[in-house]
Specification:
Elements (H helix, E strand, L loop, with lengths): L3 E4 L1 H8 L6 H13 L16 E6 L4 E8 L4 E9 L2
Parallel strand pairs: 1-4
Antiparallel strand pairs: 2-3, 3-4
Length: 84
């Protein structure tokens, strides 16, 4: 079962600022979040079971910070960073 992906309002602006060649890489990473959001490491290593996670994309040039809400079958994307 796929998770619903919701983007925080600031994420729309962050995605709009990404270089065009990073967008397919981001789309691929979002596809991973839809199916296996728990595969990303914990945002805080001291809390490995935390629903706050991170997933890199673009060979480590991008980072998605997100929250897994299992009870709602949802992933909230909170931040997208590109360090290109």
């Amino acid at each position: 079962m796929a998770y619903l992906i919701l983007l925080d309002p600031q994420v729309h602006d962050q995605i709009g600022a990404l270089p065009a060649d990073s967008l397919p890489l981001l789309a691929e990473a979002i596809g991973v979040l839809e199916l296996t959001p728990w595969n990303g490491p914990a945002y805080n290593e001291a809390k490995p079971d935390s629903p706050m996670r991170q997933l890199d994309f673009g060979q480590g040039r991008g980072l998605i910070t997100y929250l897994v809400l299992d009870d709602q079958n949802r992933v909230d994307v909170l931040d997208v960073t590109w360090i290109g």
